[in-house]
Structure formats: C-alpha cells, structure tokens
Amino acid sequence: MKKGTIVKVSGPLVMAKGMEHANIQDLCYVGDMRLVGEIIEMRHDVASIQVYEETSGVGPGEPVETTGEALSVELGPGIVSQMFDGIQRPLDTFKAQTDSNFLVRGVNIEALDRQNKWAFNATKAVGDMVEPGDIIGTVQETKVIEHRVMIPHGVKGKLTALESGEFSLEDVVAKVETDNGETDVTMLQRWPVRRGRPFKKKLNPDKPMLTGQRVIDTFFPITKGGAAAVPGPFGAGKTVVQHQIAKFSDVDLVVYVGCGERGNEMTDVLNEFPELVDPNTGESLMERTILIANTSNMPVAAREASIYTGITIAEYFRDMGYSVAIMADSTSRWAEALREMSGRLEEMPGDEGYPAYLGSRIAEYYERAGRIVTVGSEEREGSITAIGAVSPPGGDTSEPVTQNTLRVVKIFWALDSSLAQKRHFPSVNWLTSYSLYLDDVGKFMDQELETNWAEMVQHSMNILQEESELQEIVRLVGIESLSEKDRLTMVIAQQLREDYLQQNAFDDVDTFTSRTKQYYMLDLILSFEEEAREAMRLGAYYKEILEGTSDLRDKIARAKFISEDNVEQIRALKDEAKEIIHNIVAEGGMTQNA
Amino acid sequence: MLKEYKTVSEVVGPLMAVEGVEGVKFDELVEVQLQTGEIRHGQVLEVDGDKAMVQIFEGPSGINIKDTKVRFRGKPLSIDVSEDMVGRVFNGLGEPMDDGPDIIPETSLDVNGQAINPIARDYPDEFIQTGISAIDHLNTLVRGQKLPVFSGSGLPHKELAAQIARQASVLNSDEKFAVVFAAMGITFDEAEFFMEDFRKTGAIDRSVMFINLANDPAIERIATPKMALTTAEYLAFEKDMHVLVIMTDMTYYCEALREISAARREVPGRRGYPGYLYTNLSTLYERAGRLVGKKGSVTQIPILSMPEDDITHPIPDLTGYITEGQIILSRDLDKQGLKPPINVLPSLSRLKDKGTGEGKTRKDHAPTMNQLFAAYAKGIEAKELAVVLGESALSDTDKLYVEFTKRFEAEYINQGFYTNRSIEDTLTLGWELLSILPRTELKRISSELIEEFMPEGE
Ligand SMILES: Nc1ncnc2c1ncn2[C@@H]1O[C@H](COP(=O)(O)OP(=O)(O)OP(=O)(O)O)[C@@H](O)[C@H]1O
Ligand SMILES: [Mg+2]
C-alpha cells in the first residue's frame, strides 16, 4: 500500500502530502497509531483527511496509508440487535477486545463476526438465472428477522453452485457463471456509505406507518417511505418521540442513529429494548433494532459519517423487501460536524457558518428514504421511513438546518417548549405541525376502519383551531362573554388536548395506542360533543350539561388508561354518555316546561 | 533531553507561533520559559509543517519573542492524581495551592479523558435526596446525572449548590463520597462562600478544590474543568467514590474559549462563540455517569449565569442540549423572596422517570409530580388572567387554582436554604396542596392513589 506523509494536524483535520495516488473518499490509516480517516479533498498531492478518532499526539512526519477503498459498511447476517459506532465498529466487541470502558484509539475491528456460523437455507436452485438483488437463500438472523441473502451488484448469470448448510460470512454459498467467468458469492457484502443503493423505481408512500402515538397517527400521520422532521428546543421531547416510534411503529426493522447526542440515551435503548415486547411480533424489540451510536463527545468526523452508515444499512434491508424506519437524533449535530470540517478546510462559509452545500447534503440524505421497487427479477417492494430530529439554536426554526430540512420532508412535527413546560407531551404543536400525507392516510383509514375517520380528524382539528381563536377573546374580555355554544367548544377542545393528544410515554398503558383504540377514543369524545350539542339544541343549558357530566367526563379522561384488551369498555362508555345526556335533557326539559 | 526552541515568531492574544519545530504533535503539552525564568504552560492547537500554534494558559503578558524558550513535552496536558487529593486545594492547572505536602502521584492522567463506550455505561437510576422539594419531587437528581443550574448574575445559585452538596452527602454517610469543586473565573468572595460552607459542615475533608478566580489567567479556565473531571473520574472509577462535581461558572469557561477562537480568526458562530462550542461542552458534560461493574459515580452540577437572563443565549442553550435537564432560577421569584427561587415549570430532570416510583421513592411520586406541574401551570395562567380582567372574572375553580399557586410557592418551593426535607415530607406536602383543588381536577392521579394518599377532611 502506498504511503504519504502528514504535514498538518488541526483537530480532526489532517493534511498529508505525497498522496497523488489516492482518491477522494478513500479510507486511510493516519499516523503511527493508524487512526481511521477519510479523504475529503485533494489539492495537487496534498490530501485533506477527516479523522474519525481523536488526533491528539499525531504530528507532521508520520505516515498516512490509503486503502484505496471508500468508507463502506459490511452487510450480512449479524447486523441486527447490534450497537455500532459511527463507522460500524461493534461496541460490545470493542469493549471486549480493548478491555476498557472507554473508546481507546487505533482499534481495528471487523464490523461483522467472521467466526459465527449461520444456518443458510438455499431458496434457488443450481441452473437458475440470477441478477443483482435476487434472493438466493435465507438466514434466520434473529427471532423476527429473516435475512435474505441477495446476489451482489455486478453479478449476473447462471447459478452453478448453491447449497444449504452452516456457513460463516466468508464461506462461499453460491457460484454464478457470469460473462466474465465464475464468481463466488458469500453472505458478506460491502457498500460505500455515501452512495445510495440502487432500486428500480419509487412509489408514492401512501400507506400509514402506525406509531401508536395518537397525535401522530391521528393528526400528523407518517407513511411507510415518508420523511419527517422533528424540530424543537432542548427538552421539548424529540428523543422521546423518536424512541417511541422506534419502539412501536409497525415496521419490520428500525435503525436508530444517535448522532452527537447523549451517551445515556443510547444506554437507555440498549437496556430497555431487549425487555420490551414488540406489539406487532410479540418478540423482544431488540430483535428488530440496529443502533448506531456516535455520542456528542465522540469524534465529530465520525458523527458526520454515522448517518450514512445508518441509512446504508437501512437500504440493504429495504432491498430484502422490508419496511425500515430510520431515526437520526439529531441531524443538527450532523450538520454542525459538517460545519466544523468545512471551517477547518477554510471553505467560504454560508448561512450561519454552514457550508453552502448544507442544503444539498440534507436533501441527498432524505432522498434515500422512500417506498421503492427493488432491483432484481422479483421486484419486491421495500421502504425506508426517515425521521430526523432537528435542534435549532434557541429553538428558533428560522435557522438553516430546519429550513433546509423542511424543503425536503413532507411531515413536520413542531415541538413546542411552552407545551413541554406545561407537561403537555408529546409537545407537538397542533396548530403549526403538518403532514402532507393526511389525505392519503385518511382515505386508507376510512377503508380499513370502515368509518368516516378523515372527517372525524378534520372536525377535531377545526375544534382545536376554533379554540385558539376563542382563547384570544377570553384573554381580552373573559370567559363570560362567550356564547354557550362556544363554551362547549372550549370544553371539547380541552378534552381533545388533555384526554386525547396528551400521551404519557412512561405509562405502561398510555405509551402505545392501537388504531382501534385511537378510533374508539376519538369517537367517544366526538360523540360526547354531538350529544351535548343536540342537548343544547333541545334546550339544555351549558351549565346543566357540564354539571351533569362531570363524572362522565372524568371517565372519558381516563379512557386512555384502559388497556388494549379491554377497549370494548370505551365503546360502552359511548353508550353511557348518550344515556346520561339524554337524562339531562329529559330533566332539563321538565324544568323548562314547568 | 527535550529540545528547546527559541523561535517564537508571533504572539497574538493567548496564542503563540513557534517556527522551525520538529516532531511536534497535535494537542501536546508545552512549557514556555520567559526571560525572567518564569515557566508557563501551553498546548498545541495546530501544527502545520514546522510551525506550531500554541495556546498559553497563563496568558501572554510579559512574553518577549526573542528571549522566550519553548519546550514540547511529548505528552498531553496531564494531572498527577492520588486519593490524597481529597481535602486539598489546587489552582486551575491542578497545582497544589494550599500549605499541604506535594501529592505523591499514584498515576498521571491525560486530562482530556476518553469517551465512555455507551455499552459500558450503567443507566443512572439511583435517587439522590437533596432535601429540596422542587428538586427531589419535581426535578429529581440521580447518581451519574449532569444537571446544571441556570442562574443569572446576583441570583443565589451558590446557596443552592452548597445546599445540595451539604444535604446530598449526609444521607449516604456509610458510602464513600467526595465533592470535586471547580471554580472558573468567579470572585474570591464566591469561592470563599463555598469553602466556608464546606468547612462548617466538614465537607471540606471530602472535597477536592480547583480554583481559578476572576483575576487568574483566563485561558487557564479552559483546563480547570478538565482537571476536576479527570480527578472525579479517578476517584469514582478507581476509588469507588460517589463524586459530586460542582463547576462554576461555565459562562466564564465559554468566554475563554471564545477568546481563543477569536485569536485564531475562526468563523464565529452565534454571539461570537465558536461553532464547536456544543462539541466542546459535551466533552465536559458527558464525563458524568456510572459504569457497569464500578461502584462509584460522577454526578455533575454545572452552574452557569445566563447573560441578560436569556435562556436562548448559546451558553445555556447548548448546555441544555447536552445535559440531562436543568434547574432554572428565576429573578421574579427571587424578588418575591422565594428561597430557593427555582422556577419549576421550565426546569426539568430527564432522568427522573427511572429514578423514582415504587422501590426508589414512592409509587405516588410521578402522578403527584405531573399533577403539581399541571396545577401550577394552570394557576399561573389564572393569576395572569386575574391581573388583566380582575379576580371576579375567574371561575370558582380558577380561584382555587390561584390559591393553590400561592401556597405552592410560599410553602413548597420556598423552603429556605437550610431546610432538609425527606422525600416523604415533600410528598405529604404535595398532597396537602393538591387537596385545595376539586377531585375532578386531579386527572393525572388514579382514583386508587387518591383514596390511599389524599389527606382526610379537605
Ligand atoms: N411523551 C412523553 N411523555 C412523558 N414525558 C415526556 C414525553 N416526551 C417528553 N417527555 C419529557 O420531556 C423530557 C425531555 O424530552 P427529550 O429528552 O425527548 O427532549 P429533547 O427534545 O430530545 O431534548 P434535547 O434536544 O436536549 O435532546 C423527557 O425526559 C421527559 O421527561
Ligand atoms: Mg434529545
């Protein structure tokens, strides 16, 4: 391998001369400690290298060795349930191999275990014609994930050997007779992280991805293949929202990228997920989860790489025909890493010091999400749903990262510090958030639930909007000035906010709400409204209704704590509501007639 | 023999350029010897060919370009540590400044530390009773957490921090406990306040103090918290101690960073602070925690004064994005005479959920906490409404909320700096206040808990 010589070290940026043989994006080993780095710029024979480990103790004169290969991930059985760092080093092996609780430097570890034997089950036969993307066999990787071994890119022809059996990653499981001779196929593939994996075509992502979070599923739904941004100031609840989605969404696989955030949050996931049961499969959540951890105090260059590592892994499973969700917490920290490298390269700074290419990088990332038809003769459908937290300075979303993100995503969950301060969680602001998939999902749900779901949602939204206007009036002239009708609107709006939208992630029951329960809960509140309005039309007074239903409203408020096994109780409450309000009318009617 | 250079070519602010160097490494420790013989310390910020850029901790004053000698030490900035540091006072660079004997080092540690492998972390979930209701019940502190105090000039953060240090230590007296205190740019009076308080309670014998005062070199402050945290990690993870680290005032630390950044002519970020302020702060704050298989823990209480009480200022803002919550002091509450003037609504402890409840504190902890928050928020709104429209515009329920709010502030928050409440006492007081409100308002508490805990005869 060819070597260059370091001439400059400035934090994570190292420059080396004598590198004319190297290519942009080549991975290299930097200095005597052989730290991992990537070439991000070449000028004559001088390469600028971003180094994925701390560079203290590195100096001019030390060697740099390029590998001639771009930063890539290893793909094959053994990825799921793992926690990797930003450049796919498995952190448990890291700890075992270094015998240290800390991330010591210059450690070279293979991403996937070469020793482990996997039970490979051939699904094609010798003589079959295969092309890239075709599945030739499967491995039960975890209890819930069947790893589908695909023909790698660039390989096409007739299968000349294929056999079921126990194999390790580098064993040959198949041979293909191609135009250029026979090629061995193993269960291990590599793919450069900065290049999206190819697919045949994109489809409209119009099927909901259910998250079990009421404010999301009902008001601002996300779809399989959609992309969402979650901006909010610190403590607004971005991480909790993403953890909740990672836990409960009805996808096959979750890739969670902790990008420049807290170490304890990754530990939390690592401790909690194995204990939690996936409501969709009945198995432990860790069986379908992949974690990428580059915490805030880990090297910033690796932070920049971490989201690409994550999305490439997501694409690989998408190509098997799975629905995958990827969360990045937080994309702002990734953008800051970009800014820091750009600054050290002395590039011309754009908005708030971010490089001019910030917008295109963000767009490129979210473009890798989507619902697609895979390559290969089988034309599977797969999807990646991408959710990115954004951490705007001072909570001000006019800043470049939020703005550039909003240009590409179709879902915006605006977290609001004033709601968070009132402990209204999730603090998704119902007036400023939006989902451009609302109509698609509404139609879908109408069919699935055989109801007027879309209408119910629209009506609820109108009430909440009306409430905010009425609140203005109350603030100026007091509640007494409102008509009885408006005061009822205020009551219903409060029910929607407190009894429906608020959802405690830390309550065993409330943490997840199925589609059916969401429908029952919303229907309960809206039918309460309908009955109450009808009662007023028949002459009952607002005050009578309010006083006569205080126990009832208390029960409505507690509907969220009724477990999924007992949702019929919510149905029963609806009948009870009817009866109670009818009685109020009956009695009220008497007072009026008298 | 270390090579000595007399090739200083430039001194700009706290930075010094040395030319013709050989074998210099990034981040290396530097010794600068002035013409007077005085030795100063520095650190390599960048090395470009044969030119090294050095930041001088003690500042540039009196440096003569021609006669200054520079030695590169071939190792990073380090601190000699030993258990004997407990009970001692050091300067901001970790050199003893009391009358005690030299520290005989057990080992010498790189102050930059290393990131903890997330696999090796043990999630912090052990309740620390600080004896302060607004913290224990509403913004619970746990071992291994980083929970800053956001304050403003003139607000009593030092009283609060001292109260925490005093009261949190007594509960677990059978366990090994230490306080590591890092002063950065604060006044002599403020430092003396802590010393005096620690002396009175005997905590001084269990403390390690690193002192950089307002009149000490500003750039030295960049090293001070690293000295403190390296010592804390050593005591926690090598000596099994539960270490509480108090760092005050982070604002001056950040200002020192800004000074370096300006001298390097870096593209400034918001309000002139460098774009890497977030990353830099995280390399300090993330050094809190617990490790699997280790007895000790590092808990951090950084204190920062918000310039102009502005929470969106980059220093509190970026801190809040890294730490696991924040305790916010309010000037309004302070004016009303509340001690401590903690504004609980924007305050937060993110680790409370796993550190409270049955088996840790009590099963009614979280529901009553949620209810108190909701009720207080509602009470404040009602109070504001009353200001605009008069008391008479309030509904009967609203009036009860106003009463609740007044008593909540006067009795629950305003406990004084010397009252030490057990968590049970705090919970009892919470129930008493909630009994002011109609039961139908207590939506966040289950009926069973209300039956069990609500005081009789409301
Ligand atoms: N759905 C929820 N239910 C209950 N509590 C919640 C919920 N969402 C957020 N919280 C509370 O808010 C706190 C902060 O949430 P979170 O850590 O997600 O904020 P964040 O927006 O990610 O902040 P940062 O930007 O600093 O990382 C949590 O620790 C929790 O106490
Ligand atoms: Mg977060």
Automatic annotation (TrEMBL), chain A:
Kindly state a single biological-process term from the GO annotations of this entry: proton motive force-driven plasma membrane ATP synthesis
Q: Which residues form the ATP synthase A/B type C-terminal domain?
A: 445-536
Please give the InterPro entries that the UniProt record associates with this protein. Answer: ATP-synt_VA_C (IPR055190), ATP-synth_a_Xtn (IPR031686), ATP_synth_asu-like_sf (IPR023366), ATPase_a/bsu_AS (IPR020003), ATPase_F1/V1/A1_a/bsu_N (IPR004100), ATPase_F1/V1/A1_a/bsu_N_sf (IPR036121), ATPase_F1/V1/A1_a/bsu_nucl-bd (IPR000194), ATPase_F1/V1_b/a_C (IPR024034)
In its keyword annotation, does this UniProt entry include GTP-binding?
A: no
**Source organism, top-level taxon:** Bacteria
> Which keywords has UniProt assigned to this entry?
ATP synthesis, ATP-binding, Hydrogen ion transport, Ion transport, Nucleotide-binding, Translocase, Transport
- The protein's Enzyme Commission number: 7.1.2.2
The chain positions of domain ATPase F1/V1/A1 complex alpha/beta subunit nucleotide-binding read 212-435
User: Pfam families per the record?
Assistant: ATP-synt_ab (PF00006), ATP-synt_ab_N (PF02874), ATP-synt_ab_Xtn (PF16886), ATP-synt_VA_C (PF22919)
Instruction: Respond yes or no to whether keyword Translocase is given for this record.
Output: yes
The protein's matches in SUPFAM superfamilies, at most eight in alphabetical order, are given as: C-terminal domain of alpha and beta subunits of F1 ATP synthase, N-terminal domain of alpha and beta subunits of F1 ATP synthase, P-loop containing nucleoside triphosphate hydrolases
A cellular component term from Gene Ontology for this protein is: proton-transporting ATP synthase complex
Query: Which EC class is the enzyme in?
Result: translocase
Which CDD domains does the entry mention?
A: ATP-synt_V_A-type_alpha_C (cd18111), ATP-synt_V_A-type_alpha_N (cd18119), V_A-ATPase_A (cd01134)
Q: Which residues form the ATPsynthase alpha/beta subunit barrel-sandwich domain?
A: 110-194
Where, by residue number, does ATP bind?
232-239
Catalyses which reaction?
Answer: ATP + H2O + 4 H(+)(in) = ADP + phosphate + 5 H(+)(out)
| Family, per entry | Belongs to the ATPase alpha/beta chains family.
Chain's role: Produces ATP from ADP in the presence of a proton gradient across the membrane. The V-type alpha chain is a catalytic subunit.
What protein name is recorded for this chain? V-type ATP synthase alpha chain
Protein species of origin: Halolactibacillus halophilus
TrEMBL record, chain B:
Q: Where is the ATPase F1/V1/A1 complex alpha/beta subunit N-terminal domain?
A: 8-74
Q: Where is the ATP synthase A/B type C-terminal domain?
A: 355-453
Q: Which UniProt keywords apply?
A: ATP synthesis, Hydrogen ion transport, Ion transport, Transport
Q: Which PROSITE patterns did the record assign?
A: ATPASE_ALPHA_BETA
Tell me where in this chain the ATPase F1/V1/A1 complex alpha/beta subunit nucleotide-binding domain is found: 131-349
Looking up InterPro entries in the UniProt record yields: ATP-synt_VA_C, ATPase_a/bsu_AS, ATPase_F1/V1/A1_a/bsu_N, ATPase_F1/V1/A1_a/bsu_nucl-bd, P-loop_NTPase, V-ATPase_su_B/beta
Write out the GO MF terms. Answer: ATP binding; proton-transporting ATP synthase activity, rotational mechanism
Q: What CDD domains has UniProt attached to this entry?
A: ATP-synt_V_A-type_beta_C, ATP-synt_V_A-type_beta_N, V_A-ATPase_B
The keyword Oxidoreductase appears for this protein: no
One matching Pfam family: ATP-synt_ab
Q: Which GO terms describe its biological process?
A: proton motive force-driven plasma membrane ATP synthesis
What does the function comment of this entry state? Produces ATP from ADP in the presence of a proton gradient across the membrane. The V-type beta chain is a regulatory subunit.
**Similarity comment text for this entry:** Belongs to the ATPase alpha/beta chains family.
Sorted alphabetically, which NCBIfam families does this protein's record hold? PRK04196.1
Q: Return the protein name.
A: V-type ATP synthase beta chain
Gene designation per UniProt: atpB
